[in-house]
Design brief:
Helix content is 20%, strand content 37%. It contains 6 helices and 18 strands. The model has no long low-confidence stretch (mean pLDDT 95). β7 (110-117) and β8 form a beta hairpin. The chain is globular and about 55 Å long. By secondary structure, the protein is of the alpha+beta class.
């Protein structure tokens, strides 16, 4: 067998949960050196998950490993649940020492600091997200409400926020309304020129502080079950609009119940939103080999 078509370690990890078949699944291809970008994109379409991650040797000093992240449609510079899932996988695989408490990941967004709390199976993994940037762009709130089938809170208004992936972030007044949303995905895709729409409501029947849903039909993902970058932009929105005082600088977000996933994202905000950390638990559901 040629080196190009060797057996490569593979894991499917459920992120933002301790329970298999909950949270958000991510495919992780370990030993991905030698796979070209076109083949990575084909494999991401084949797994049919919101993201597939490829683990590679680092190219920058100080990085423990490098990852590339692909949706079924395109490559991303950063995404939250693939980052946490990949860190979980490299720790389990021994690419990084399994008892490491700090890691440095290289990705399209640069070098990102990760840390761990606790030991398996209770271990939680946190990543400092790229700095959030508020984009000053016009938003048609009426068109957004029509695509969603419910109005979006206008004060404070929706914001376009960039953490690598770019999300239009808006608030829905009631949690039950948010959970019952059935958007017009065609209309939403037309509005999703930024990448996707993440919506939140304060409070949760799960006991969490915030409820979140993330839609990205233009990127081939009608709804991301539990979205790390979406949660990071919600944190930035809360900090920017002053709503963070209602939930606190350390809070829990509930996402994915509508998809049967019931994930929990832990969020920490400092510096008025200049520093955002997201994290949670992860569990490996599938281990095996890919022949590529």
């Amino acid at each position: 067998m040629s080196d190009r078509h060797r057996a490569r370690r593979f894991a499917q990890v459920d992120v933002f949960t301790r329970s298999p078949l909950r949270g958000n699944p991510v495919a992780v291809v370990l030993d991905a050196e030698g796979i070209d970008a076109d083949e990575m994109q084909r494999l991401a379409g084949w797994t049919n998950l919101s993201e597939t991650v490829f683990v590679l040797p680092s190219t920058q000093a100080g990085a423990d490993y490098r990852i590339r992240i692909f949706t079924p449609a395109h490559e991303l510079p950063f995404a939250g649940h693939p980052t946490v899932g990949a860190a979980h996988a490299v720790l389990e695989a021994g690419i990084v020492r399994g008892d490491a408490t700090h890691l440095t990941q290289e990705c399209g967004a640069g070098l990102l600091a990760l840390r761990t709390e606790g030991a398996p199976p209770e271990r939680r993994i946190f990543v400092r997200t790229p700095a959030a940037k508020i984009r000053q762009e016009p938003i048609d709130i009426g068109a957004l409400g029509r695509a969603l089938g419910v109005p979006v809170v206008a004060d404070p208004p929706p914001l376009v926020i960039d953490v690598g992936p770019v999300w239009l972030v808006g608030q829905i007044a009631q949690e039950r309304t948010l959970r019952a949303l059935a958007p017009d995905m065609t209309a939403l895709a037309t509005l999703s020129r930024w990448g996707g729409v993440t919506l939140f409501a304060l409070g949760s029947v799960t006991g969490a502080d915030v409820t979140v849903r993330s839609f990205a039909p233009a990127g081939g993902i009608n709804e991301d079950p539990v979205c790390g970058s979406g949660n990071a932009t919600v944190a930035a929105y809360l900090a920017t609009t002053g709503l963070l005082a209602r939930v606190g600088a350390v809070y829990r977000a509930s996402q994915g119940r509508e998809r049967g996933r019931d994930g929990e994202v832990l969020v920490r905000v400092a510096g008025g939103g200049r520093e955002i950390e997201i994290g949670g638990s992860a569990v490996t559901v599938v281990e095996g080999r890919l022949r590529l």
